[in-house]
Each structure stands twice: as structure tokens, then as C-alpha cells.
């Protein structure tokens, strides 16, 4: 697995949406790639911060300038 492939499937990895073989491949990559370990950590912290940022405003609307892909990624991560 390359770092680019890792980044492309990180959402599925976090949401536990990968097959067992794919998840094992992710783990093998993490065992040898400190950059992706750092990327995964940063990604998870970003998700956690976004959850806390609006914890007091569960019904707040998302500003129109927020990219749809970002919204989908955040919503996908909330399932995990």
C-alpha cells in the first residue's frame, strides 16, 4: 500500500468499513510509515475537535461555503 492509497481509504478505515484483508493492509502500512501514523492521528484529532466545536449547537446549519466532500467525510466519521 502506498501513502496515497492510505489517504484515499482513510475514511473507510476509520469507519471500520474495510474488509479484514484491507484493514490488515492498512495496519501493515502503519507499522512502517510514520508519516501515515501522524496523518491518521491528525485526522482523528480533527474529527474529535469538529465534534466538540458544535456539541452545544446540534441543530446549527452548515455554512454554504463548506465543501460538500468535507461535510460527507465528517458525517461518515460520526458513524464510528
For the secondary structure, the number of strands is 0
Largest sheet: none
Protein structure class: mainly alpha
Mean pLDDT: 87
Order of helices and strands: HHHHH
Please tally the helical runs, counting DSSP H or I stretches of 4 or more residues.
5
Q: Strand portion, in percent? A: under 5%
Quaternary organization:
single chain
Note down, in words, how this protein is organized.
With 80 residues, this protein is an all-alpha fold. 69% of the residues lie in helices and 0% in strands. The protein has five helices and no strands.
What attributes characterize this protein structure?
0% strand; mainly alpha; 69% helix; 80 residues
Task: Tell me briefly what this model is.
The protein has helices at residues 3-8, 10-14, 20-32, 34-53, 68-78. With 80 residues, the protein is mostly helical.
Q: How are the SSEs placed, and which strands pair?
A:
Blueprint: H1 3-8, H2 10-14, H3 20-32, H4 34-53, H5 68-78
